[in-house]
Amino acid sequence: MKDLIDIHVVLSTADDMQDYHDDPQAASDNLNDILFLLFDHIDNDWEVEDIEKCLQYCWQVWVHDSHLGELDPEDFQQIVDHLLATWEDALNEDELN
Q1: Rounded distance, CA 34 to CA 67, Å?
Q2: Cα(16)–Cα(13) distance, rounded to whole angstroms?
Q3: What is the pLDDT of residues 32-45, one digit of tens each?
């Protein structure tokens, strides 16, 4: 179902980060790297709605994080691994609705 998702629709811009980060471009670049990595690691058999929720959840959590612009690629992998490991539990607890 991933082929039905256009990841570029979810990506951020520096303008999205203006109100939250000292370096909006770095924050936007890092969020986009996390979103691309997350999308790459999502199983192909996920439902479209679940993929969209996961990407939106990631976006909403990280856009406000003051350390977003300071993260490095090693952090991205840990973030994605943690999100995917806990995603099913989050859906079951209705945290995302």
Answers
A1: 13
A2: 5
A3: 999 999 999 999 98
Whether 45 is covered by a domain: the verdict is yes
CA distance 44 to 69: 30
Residue 26: inside a domain, yes or no? yes
Report the share of the chain in percent with pLDDT over 70: 92
pLDDT at 92: 62
Two tokens at 85? Answer: 């490991």
Q: Domain count for the chain, please give it.
A: 1
Find out whether 54 and 42 touch, Cβ atoms under 8 Å: yes
Q: Provide the token pair at 28.
A: 């936007």
Domain span including residue 53: 2-92
- C-beta of residue 21 within 8 angstroms of C-beta of residue 33: no
The pTM for the full model equals: 0.88
Query: Is 97 within a domain?
Result: no
Distance CA 50, CA 19 (A): 29
Structure tokens at 13: 């811009």
